Prior knowledge:
The protein is an alpha+beta fold. Helices cover 56% and strands 8% of the residues. The protein is built from 19 helices and 13 strands. Helix 5 (103-113) packs antiparallel against helix 9 (206-223), helix 8 packs antiparallel against helix 13 and helix 13 runs parallel beside helix 19 (443-460). Its cofactor is heme.
Amino acid sequence: MELKTLWLVQSLQPITLLLVCIIFCLYLFLKPKFCCKCNICKSYLNSTWRHEFHNLCDWYTHLLRKSPTHTIHIHALNNIVTANPENVEYMLKTRFDNYPKGKPFSVILGDLLGRGIFNVDGDLWRFQRKMASLELCRSSVKAYMLDVINFEIKTRLTPLLSSFVDRKSGVLDLQDVFRRFAFDCICKISFGLDPKCLELCLPMSEFAVSFDLASRLSAERAMTTVPLIWKLKRFFNIGSERRLKKAINMINVLAQELIQQRRKKDFSNDPDLLSKFMNSSITDDETLLRDIVISFVLAGRDTVASALTSLFWVLANHPLVSEAIRDEADRVIGTNQEMSSIEQLQKLHYLQAVVYEGMRLYPPVQFDSKFCLEDDILPDGTFVKSGTRITYHTYAMGRMKEYWGENCLEFKPERWLRDGAFFQENPFMYPVFQAGVRVCLGKEMALLELKSVILCLLRCFDIQLSCPTQMPRFSPGLTATFSGGLPVLIRERIR
């Protein structure tokens, strides 16, 4: 009897799988036809945007420009996309509680981010934000950040680039270098550990490799028009979901090892962010500590590396801007003198303008989404039904003539200066660091890294693109990543 039952179960498995596949195919081919007949949805579902635009974000920018309200509705995805600053302020400040990250978003990124700060709402989000804010706002922590960043630049980043100076075949992927640099920095600052990914032999930590893969595959989940696809793949543990599961298992093991190593150290005299959480009420919640580690790696590595990559691509195309940065540094810091304090960096107004202008055109996070809890009406008159995903498109907002003028596509740092001093524009028109209640806690640390790296490398080297005419193409990911990296040639600077 038992043998017959076992035979029956085994024989039914392929039949069940076949039925699921048939249902899946019907769902995949019939749903787009019935969900919506608008041209925007047809264009998205058929991927016809690829024939005219290099990147999906450029297609969204095109559509948002054409809309009188700078808001569109992608019915196939039940997604309202906006580039209207009034709508952004309404979501992030005025009615913040009605636009949480939401359960759909949490499910998509749940395997990777768990209950980390970027994937939760409510009390758990407030707790993590408060703990991180108390630590990152301390003046002693800022001074420690600068020490870590300067050490990484002087002892690893600069020697690495020097080793590639004037090599005939010495093309260096600067995007990969910046990812290593940012990974070392965030691990030192937040966890008190040094992965040494930027040493001359360029070792790559298993954590970073697994994290890259998991980040990319999780982002692909969010981009699929039919969520059932990745859910079925996860259920049967096949394809991309199988690779994602393997990568996350590796991340879990390494994150747990990192936490255990930190527990063994005496952090009473050398506190860091992870230590603060370990000394809090969640000290025994190993899973939540793991989620916190992952979230801060995402925030501290990927966004900084993305911003540095796009900034150096822009600077390589604008040599006069690089010269202006050097001239300002010579006036403020002194010729051949090294930057030694945060106060000196704060006096470099043109450098600050360059950083902001670069991220206006190429924000590290190109868009961000929330989910509407209760039926609502946005300031531009758009009706938002409960359960609708609403996305503000930072990339598109930086390319709107109404906000930035007719020259909005030009790289002009001067637009951020008033009488030679840096001037902050409306943060809801420039939500690169988000705005309102969820404004980025790591903003000051990120700016410290960006300005320090730009300043040092421009004063030491001439960095040239190996393919000067090639425009950026972005790979799928939670942050903007150049497909193919940023290959450059390093030349010694002739002073």
